[in-house]
Amino acid sequence: MTDAAAIPTRSNAQWGAVLSMSLCVALLIASEFMPVSLLTPMAAGLGASEGATGQAISISGLFALAASLLITTAAGQFNRKLVLIALTALMLASLVMVAVAPNFTVLITARAILGICIGGFWALATAVMMRLVPPGEVPKALSIMYGGQAIAAAFAAPLGAYLGDIFGWRAVFWALTPLVALNLIWHLIALPSLPARGRQSFGVVIEVLRRPYFLRGLIAAMLSWGSAFTMFTYLRPFLEQVTGVNATLLSILLLVLGIAGFAGTWAAGRFVGEGFERLLKLPALVMGGVTLALIFTGSSPLATGILLAIWGAMNTALSVIFMTWMSQNVDDQPEAGGSLMVAAIQGSILLGAVIGGLLLDALSITATFAGAVALAVAAVALIGNGQRMLKPAN
């Protein structure tokens, strides 16, 4: 249960720490999904198929899933500030390994290390935000943190595609390393001491998972993110094969998608509040509809740009909507709830990359996008009006 004495007031809320966490989010997102914008040259450089190289994302998802479930137990009594610093250091090590990777095996190993960082950080992030700011400011803090996601979505993919075309894909990963090093220093300065609040056993995670309303929401989150990343992981092959883009237009379209994410983050921070359960199905509904529309209109660069802008805005809103739901419906066990949410999200990213890659290699990129649409339909059907995802009133 949240200790009232530990809740900061508005005057001493750690907004510098919130911004430090936001930068870490941006770098995590950039590191995790940079292979999306560099998929084709990475595959060529490592002598692997595009579908196989896409598994570099799925392997990070696999290890992120495991880390998210184990981090609160494994971290034990360690101060959460020290845990976050250690995880950021792991991200730095992973990027260096990717940049020098001589073969596919080293790449996969580096991505596994990154997955540990991703799973651990995200599992703790919402619970940390709930300790940094007053309860009423949590949606705002989350929207700022996910603003880091919007920044990464806006600039990482297009810059990665553009710079990778000029300097090579390895140079792109090298360029991220000084930014992560600076973020590591910022964590040391800005994050307050965050002592562990008792040792959490794995049984607490199981107890939270047994809550029917939370389990339904968890499955809905998996379907929503699974749909999104079945499409997003293989967006570059779609744009190259169906839209027929060159490197410059590819960068422009990815930039459009990313910049739209700022609008999604702003709208989510402003409008997610009371009655947010009605918004739970909106991301899957909109992004699934966009993916379906791309199948039929993807040959037009203009139509594709408009649709990707809509998709990008809703993609960043997705995180704020579901994490706000988690913070308000598992507020008695935020670390356990966060662990399960991150495990569900990373599991869906893993499955999305695997399923999408198999469909791409066995059938076509159209089949990959059709699989994403099917997952979105399932999410919307499960969520309904969102009432069954709310904890019972006391």
Key terms:
MFS transporter, membrane, 16 helices, 394 residues, MFS_dom, 80% helix, MFS_Efflux_Transporters, single chain
Structural features, described:
This protein is an all-alpha fold and 394 residues long. The chain has one domain: MFS general substrate transporter like domains (Growth Hormone, Chain: A). The protein has 16 helices and no strands. The chain has helices at residues 15-37, 39-46, 50-53, 55-75, 80-100, 104-132, 138-167, 169-190, 202-209, 212-232, 235-243, 247-271, 282-297, 301-329, 334-362, 365-383. It is globular. The two termini are 15 Å apart. The relative contact order is 0.16. Mean pLDDT is 79; it is low at 1-13. InterPro entries: MFS, MFS_dom, MFS_Efflux_Transporters, MFS_trans_sf.
